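Entry type: protein chain
Record version: 2
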Amino acid sequence: MVDFWGVTKPVRLDVVDTPVVPGDYVLNHVGFAIRRIPAEEIGETLALYDELLRRASAEDLMAADIRAELDAAGGRDGHD
């Protein structure tokens, strides 16, 4: 199970590049963890997602997709 801005959902670990333990951060794509994010990259990765969520618009399809998924699941606790 992963928590993505308040949305908790199952994620498969079949293809992740390294072993994952509770508390690790992973890059998720369509329900699969595809990469464990190294500790030294977590802050930068979270900042990128915060920026994507702030600028979500019709022109930015990636940001709009992330925001739509979170909105549909009732997520984004405090991340507007």
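Comment: The longest strand covers residues 32-37.
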